[in-house]
Design a protein that fits this description.
The protein contains seven helices and four strands. It has 147 residues and is an alpha+beta fold. A hairpin with a 2-residue loop joins strand 3 and strand 4. It starts with a helix and ends with a helix.
């Protein structure tokens, strides 16, 4: 984290919050309260300010997740192109609802507001990788690749 913080002027440590939170999440897998407190302390901001950032961005997680994270966009463009049907298909296929993790801890399914890929809707993000112009068949093929 020291490497990240030193990229910013001393009076602008707060600007390092997002990369610092991503680093901690990469190490721990999620952002538990103690981690938020630690980042807040290092950046000399309140825990509340740190929590606000952590809860605003969908790529940051306060809770543990499955081995794979599947996020389905259901914003306007994706919704109009079948995003909600893709989400329902995944819920049925995985036997869970959005916001849940499969009982084996393999996949966490989330509904997200926007993945900024409106021109290729419907879209989902598998971990850090985008999958676009989805159909139920493409989703089934994607799930089959997950070990």
């Amino acid at each position: 984290m020291a490497e990240i913080v030193k990229r910013y002027p001393p009076d602008r440590k707060r600007a390092a919050m997002l990369p610092a939170l991503r680093l901690v999440q990469e190490i721990l897998g999620h952002l538990p309260p103690a981690a938020l407190e630690q980042v807040a302390s290092k950046l000399e901001v309140s825990k509340t300010a740190c929590a606000e950032v952590a809860t605003f961005y969908s790529m940051l997680r306060l809770e543990p997740r499955g081995r794979y994270s599947v996020e389905v966009c259901t914003n306007v463009s994706c919704s109009l192109c079948g995003g909600e049907q893709i989400l329902r298909h995944l819920e049925q296929k995985l036997g869970i609802h959005a916001g849940e993790t499969t009982p084996d801890g393999r996949i966490t399914l989330r509904e997200v507001e926007c993945l900024a890929s409106c021109g290729t809707a419907p879209v989902l993000q598998l971990d850090e990788e985008f999958h676009e112009r989805l159909t139920p068949e493409k989703v089934d093929a994607l799930l089959a690749t997950l070990a």
